[in-house]
Amino acid sequence: METNEPEVTSARQLDVLYQKTDKVYYELARGCGLSETAYWILYAVEVSGGSATQARIAEEFSYSRQTVNSALKTLEARGLVELASSEGDRRSKVVSLTPEGRAFADERILPAIEAEDRAFGTLLPEERAEFLRLADAYARAIDDELTRLRERGATE
């Protein structure tokens, strides 16, 4: 049986697909006048219902606390977010949308989230489940491999 699908021969093809996706989000962020980090912070706050902790954002997107803090300063200066100490832990900072940030998210972030949902919805339910399962398996495998590589480099 003949198929028109290209043969997958290496992880490079997956790397190229990830780079294409990253480029789409880079261009989306720049179109909003934001850095990628600032875009993903607003995205995280939006999908969290309007507020999220700085630590959770850093962990979820694998950003350093310094990277998140720097982007938050820019977002604060633009009047899009405000920071407050968490009630349970004064050291923990909660990021919330300001009214201006809410309007910005409604205009720029929410439509992108809806577009993602529509694109994901073009896959059949079993394809969505399989895609997520495979992406998660690959992410864990590459993390394991690169962790071993870093550890080996540290001991040499």
From TrEMBL:
Residues 7-140 form the HTH marR-type domain. Transmembrane segments: none annotated. One of its GO terms (biological process) is response to stress. PANTHER family: HTH-TYPE TRANSCRIPTIONAL REPRESSOR YETL (PTHR33164:SF43), TRANSCRIPTIONAL REGULATOR, MARR FAMILY (PTHR33164). SUPFAM superfamilies: Winged helix' DNA-binding domain (SSF46785). This is MarR family transcriptional regulator. Keywords: DNA-binding, Transcription, Transcription regulation. One of its GO terms (molecular function) is DNA-binding transcription factor activity. The keyword Transferase does not apply. The keyword Disulfide bond does not apply. Pfam families: MarR_2 (PF12802). Coiled coil: none annotated. It comes from the Bacteria. InterPro entries: HTH_MarR-typ, MarR/SlyA-like, Tscrpt_reg_HTH_GntR, Tscrpt_reg_MarR-type_CS, WH-like_DNA-bd_sf, WH_DNA-bd_sf. PROSITE patterns: HTH_MARR_1 (PS01117), HTH_MARR_2 (PS50995).
